[in-house]
Amino acid sequence: MLDMTEGLAGTRVLVIGGTSGFGQRVALESAERGASVTVIGRNRSRAEAMKVLMDERHGGEVVVLDATHENDLEAFLKQRDAYEHVISMIGGAMGGGFMDNSIEDVRLAAETKFIGSLTVAKTVASHIAHAGSLTLTSGSGGHPYDASGAIIGNQSVDLLVKGLAVELAPDIRVNAIAPAWTPTGLWRHMATQEIERTEEQMSAAIPLGRVATVGEVASAYLFAMQCGFLTGQTIHVDGGVSAL
């Protein structure tokens, strides 16, 4: 059995949502540390670009698949050996308060995080090796009056992590990473000026006075994978926002 405290060399790592942003960085750095990496993404063009990037570096597998479709994910996993580490970037974001958004918008923002994460967890659990880990994605920042759906989703993931950590112990560790707003591909639909304005606003609200880099957030996922005595925790990588 592999010793999870000895780093990622020789391990099998699955990154769900790993074709851009945090997931892409986690996948590439895991490969650099000697892991055999598989990346799942929904968008074919981004998956193809990720495959080229991985081939230029340390190699790895990239699969086009919607991991929220549990039957498709299960069929894929049955064709593979168990993974030591599974990382899920499934989630979403929504601005505005309860009165600013429709019931459907709030439901979608909350369910995307909770139901999406739960679906992945229930599907992958039997495909994670003994003493392996599952790392989900939560989030930091906002207030009930200006990010209602996102906050409900994030808090539900935090609760999910605590429950799963107990249910799956001692065989599998379960944690989550909660970044504050960070400029990644998640915001590719926004104009450059809008992204710059959002970054300026966010930086002013963060105690450290700036937003995180993709690498800083990715380092938390790498830590959660490698720390063998960490489970049931949500690590906030938010420059102090959660302390406010």
How would you characterize the overall build of this protein?
The structure is a single chain. With 244 residues, the protein is of the alpha/beta class. 43% of the residues lie in helices and 18% in strands. It has a seven-stranded parallel sheet, sandwiched between helices. Helix 3 (70-78) packs parallel to helix 4 (103-124). Residues 1-5 have low confidence and may be disordered.
Topology:
Blueprint: E1 12-16, H1 21-32, E2 36-41, H2 44-56, E3 61-64, H3 70-78, E4 83-88, H4 103-124, E5 128-137, H5 148-168, E6 172-179, H6 192-205, H7 214-226, E7 234-237
Parallel strand pairs: 1-2, 1-4, 2-3, 4-5, 5-6, 6-7
Helix pairs in contact: 1-7, 3-4, 4-5
Key structural traits:
alpha/beta, disordered N terminus, 7-stranded parallel β-sheet
Overall shape? globular
The percent range for strand residues is 15-25%
Mean of residue pLDDT?
A: 90
Structural class: alpha/beta
**Total number of strands:** 7
Order of helix and strand elements from N to C terminus? EHEHEHEHEHEHHE
In whole angstroms, how far apart are the ends?
43 Å
- What about the largest sheet? 7 strands, parallel
Helix content: 40-55%
In short:
This protein is an alpha/beta fold. It is 43% helix and 18% strand. The chain is globular and about 45 Å long.
